[in-house]
């Protein structure tokens, strides 16, 4: 009996976790850490626990029968719960590229499916191994794929905002509705074929990995090209700052006047802040590119010292001044994501 239960548990959780590991290894940029993947998996498990409670309560309020409920109500509840943590990551600018968005989404969906399958494992003791093959290779992979698709579509919808100046960014929840709708449709379609479990399992196991592999490959090329272009632009900007050309430009004169009007801090500190921030963004891009090329570069003492100086400049200028001048510096949401990722590495080192 124990060996049978162990086999069922292995079938229930192994396929989706193996796929998650494969997708993570395909991320040549190492954009998302093992710690973050673990946290997202745990968040998915938490979403599964909440969904079990909500589904139980909602089923009593919808006298439409289990079949109709599983097709039209349950997917809405479950995909919305799975989407919530990914939505929070977008809100706090923790997802820079489609690569990490796809992996984050699949990790959360994987955690959801593992928790759900483990619950069913003990709630439905008489289910045979064939039923668990369908849940492990079909339902679990569907959960991961649906949430990954939500994350990818959401990234596509918000990508232009990420490339604009961060000061112009305005979080718009409506941009995430197409991705959520797609995830719900996939989930509902899967639940429409309870009498053909092997067929729907085979289709899921074929379509989800292939779609994600193609998405990761396309995103890798796009990310590589974006990094090359952005790195060149930041290198040129840093040269202009150091040569004094930025100070003489319209943007530089506007920054000087703004600091003078605010009457706190100095123009010298503001320009030092701009130079240091540009240096660190460029350094972050260099580290991401090195990771893509297979190189392992440790955080240097110079990186820690620059990060500390940036903190000191922000304190000296004051939050109101930093907020005001940031609108003139032209950094994008992607730039700030790269900088945040670098400073997180510096803190952890």
UniProtKB/TrEMBL annotation:
Keywords: Membrane, Transmembrane, Transmembrane helix. GO terms for molecular function: peptidase activity. Signal peptide: none annotated. Pfam families: PrsW-protease. It comes from the Bacteria. The chain crosses the membrane at residues 6-25, 37-54, 99-120, 132-153, 174-193, 199-217. InterPro entries: PrsW. This is Protease PrsW.
């Amino acid at each position: 009996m124990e060996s049978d239960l162990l086999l069922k548990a292995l079938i229930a959780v192994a396929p989706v976790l193996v796929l998650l590991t494969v997708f993570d290894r395909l991320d040549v940029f190492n954009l998302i850490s093992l710690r973050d993947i673990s946290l997202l998996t745990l968040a998915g498990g938490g979403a599964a626990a909440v969904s079990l409670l909500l589904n139980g309560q909602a089923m009593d309020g919808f006298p439409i029968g289990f079949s109709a409920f599983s097709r039209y109500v349950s997917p809405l509840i479950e995909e919305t719960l799975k989407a919530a943590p990914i939505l929070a990551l977008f809100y706090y600018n923790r997802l820079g590229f489609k690569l990490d968005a796809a992996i984050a989404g699949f990790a959360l969906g994987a955690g959801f499916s593992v928790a759900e399958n483990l619950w069913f494992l003990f709630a439905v003791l008489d289910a045979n191994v064939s039923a668990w093959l369908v849940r492990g290779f079909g339902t679990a992979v569907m959960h991961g794929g649906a949430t990954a698709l939500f994350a990818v579509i959401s990234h596509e919808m918000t990508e232009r905002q990420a490339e604009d100046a961060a000061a112009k960014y305005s979080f718009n929840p409506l941009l995430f509705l197409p991705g959520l709708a797609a995830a719900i449709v996939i989930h509902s379609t899967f639940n429409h074929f309870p009498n053909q479990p092997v067929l729907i399992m085979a289709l899921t196991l074929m379509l989800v990995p292939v779609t994600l592999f193609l998405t990761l490959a396309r995103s890798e090329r796009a990310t590589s090209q974006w990094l090359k272009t952005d790195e060149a632009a930041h290198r040129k900007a840093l040269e202009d700052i150091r040569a004094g050309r930025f100070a003489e430009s319209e943007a530089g004169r506007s920054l000087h006047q703004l600091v003078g009007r605010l009457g706190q801090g100095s123009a010298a500190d503001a320009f030092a802040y701009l130079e240091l921030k540009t240096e660190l963004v460029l350094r972050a891009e260099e580290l991401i590119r090195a990771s893509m090329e297979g190189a392992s570069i440790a955080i240097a003492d110079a990186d820690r010292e620059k990060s500390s100086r940036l903190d000191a400049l922000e304190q000296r200028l004051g939050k109101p001044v930093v907020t005001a001048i940031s609108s003139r510096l032209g950094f994008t949401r992607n730039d700030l994501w790269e900088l945040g990722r670098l400073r997180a590495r510096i803190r952890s080192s």
